[in-house]
Amino acid sequence: MNLYEHTIIARQDASPSELKQLTEKYSKIVEKNDGEVVKTESWGLLNLSYLIKKNKKGSYIHFKIKGKGNVIDELEKNESIDKKLLRYLTVKVKKFDLETNYFSKKEDSEKKESVNN
Fold first, then answer.
1. What mean pLDDT value characterizes the chain?
2. Taking the model in full, what pTM does it have?
3. Which of the residue ranges 52-56, 87-91, 94-98 would you say has the lowest mean pLDDT?
4. On the CB side of 102, how many CA atoms lie within 13 Å of its CA?
């Protein structure tokens, strides 16, 4: 089994319920192709470096996936025709970093550190 980190960027006008539907839709595609979604993170609405299809911002959703290459092929085939998405990216990794949440608010991470100490 290969390990992948897969990120999709949805349009800025997507509602929270639409984002949840997108997450469920792509999780089901992974599971149908004998893959496993280890973790899903919603990074929220972030600024884009440049305009993409007239959008200045995008809602980021990040998946950590275990599976074979056909899982990613099927995911990307579906994402390329989805009008709600601006971009997607898949990176093959050697191991997952399940501890760090890079897009949490600074206050949240400071609270966690003070609790751990």
1. 83
2. 0.80
3. 94-98
4. 6
